[in-house]
Amino acid sequence: MASLWEYANPRKFMTVSGALLPWVWGIAAVCLVGGLVWGFFFTPNDFRQGSTVKIIYVHVPSAIMAVNAWFMMLITSLIWLIRRHHVSALAAKAAAPVGMVFTLIALLTGAIWGQPMWGTWWEWDPRLTSFLILFLFYLGYMALWEAVDNPDAAADLTAVLCLVGTVFAVISRYALVFWNQGLHQGATLSLDAEQNIADVFWYPLITALAGFGFLFLALVLYRTRTEIRARRLKALIAQERMA
Amino acid sequence: MLGLLRRDLTLAFRAGGGFGLSLAFFLIFATLVPFGVGPETMVLETIAPGILWLGALLACLLSLDRIFQLDWEDGTLDLLATAPVPLEGVAAMKALGHWITTGLPLVLAAPVLGLLLNLPLPAYPWLLASLAAGTPALSAIGTFGAALTVGIKRGGLLLSLLVLPLYVPTLIFGALAVIRGAEGQDATTPLILLAGITLGSLATLPFAAAAALRVNLR
């Protein structure tokens, strides 16, 4: 029976991901363009927020992906620690900068929206602050990858950091709620709600969300392939030196 | 393990530089703050809880790279790893040693500095209690960070980047307990949550630190 772990073989991963990648890029482009164009030009303005409401099509998907990117890194780090598949560790390494950029996008679009709506670029609100802390975690994680020379040791150390960091990021999230009452509205999207937001906003929003999801997948696959190639190149150079 | 603790403490007391330095840093930090924000007692009164907690946190942070660095350089750490003591125990003892040499003096010195910063009277018991409950967590988290970066040359800045985000919940609850105390409210809830963080860190982080040390010693 075919097992999921077959794809941990770098050669197999390279063939499969190489075949998948154009499709993933394509779906990402279609969903992103479709969702954003639909959202920006073919939805009515909110009667109180005016056209600023349209930033939701960038802000919400990037924020969701920023958190999920960290959880993906957590899972791949666990797989690396338990089963020692190198592709898994490289995928975690590849996902970190992407997640960091999504976090930054969420923070920046939030600030741009907050200036006219809340009258301030920044507010020490639990959600905003926990995103800033998540951003710092991404920075630390990436810095640790860069700082350790031995690739296996770097993978191990960053994986342990990812585990501990997750626990503390979650604690920070709830500590911050305790610390300051929020200005940020509650969740707009939840699976168990009867209706989330009005359907005219909802359909373009989930299209944009799917677009960001596939964009993340495409970028991570692409970056993981680059990392695998870089490691092969390093091995080849080492072989040359030995010969 | 107790022998290890005794050795660490003796080194810190006698070999100079370890013991009093973070305390002196704490003092200087608290002295510099009024120069930065002005000497109005009203302003100082409101920011004193946060300043005291920040000072304790930074003083802890600055002494972190001493935990493993010297032992790593002279090979003691390799011996400890092959010794019959579990490495988790070594990490826990190192954290305890760090707390006794930096955390405990900070707790004892904090009320004096609170006086300098015009901290309101009802806050003093909460200041002592929250620092006593919170600084062990700072040491445990810091030991983990030091274990992660022990093999890295000039890892000091990286260590701060890794450890400071982990310090956030401790700082929030610690400072919140003192702020509530200063306003004359009951601060039991943040104090209990702070103690929870400390106990959780003490129970789990030595294992993470030992795992990181094993990777670095490989």
Task: Write a structural description.
With 243 residues, chain A is mainly alpha-helical. Chain A has one domain. Chain A has 6 helices and no strands. In chain A, helix 1 runs antiparallel to helix 6. The radius of gyration of chain A is 20 Å and the shape is globular. Chain B has one domain. Chain B starts with a helix and ends with a helix. Classes of the chains: A mainly alpha (243), B mainly alpha (218). At the A-B interface, helix 4 and helix 5 of A face helix 8 and helix 9 of B.
Blueprint (SSEs and pairs):
The complex is a heterodimer of chains A (243) and B (218).
Chain A: H1 10-41, H2 56-83, H3 86-117, H4 126-147, H5 151-179, H6 199-242
Helix pairs in contact in A: 1-6, 2-3, 2-5, 2-6, 3-4, 3-6, 4-5
Chain B: H1 2-14, H2 19-37, H3 41-62, H4 66-73, H5 76-82, H6 87-116, H7 124-148, H8 156-182, H9 188-217
Helix pairs in contact in B: 1-6, 2-3, 2-6, 3-6, 3-7, 3-8, 6-7, 6-9, 7-8, 7-9, 8-9
The total beta strand count of chain A reads 0
Number of helical segments with 4 or more residues of chain B: 9
Low-confidence stretches of chain A: none
Class based on secondary structure composition and strand pairing of chain A:
mainly alpha
Which protein chains make the most extensive interface, counting residues with beta carbons within 8 Å of the other chain's beta carbons? A-B, 25 and 27 residues
- This entry's quaternary arrangement is heterodimer
Instruction: Specify the helix fraction band of chain A.
Output: over 70%
Q: What is the strand tally of chain B? A: 0
Order of helices and strands of chain A: HHHHHH
C-alpha geometry of chain B = elongated
Q: Major sheet of chain B: size, sense and barrel closure? A: none
Compute the number of structural domains of chain B.
1
Report the end-to-end length of chain B measured between terminal Cα atoms: 23 Å
Would you tell me the overall average pLDDT of chain B?
86
Q: What Rg of chain A do the Cα atoms give?
A: 20 Å
Mean pLDDT score of chain A, rounded? Answer: 85
List the domain count of chain A as a whole number: 1
User: What distance lies between the first and last C-alpha atoms of chain A, to the nearest angstrom?
Assistant: 41 Å
Order of helices and strands of chain B: HHHHHHHHH
Major sheet details of chain A: none
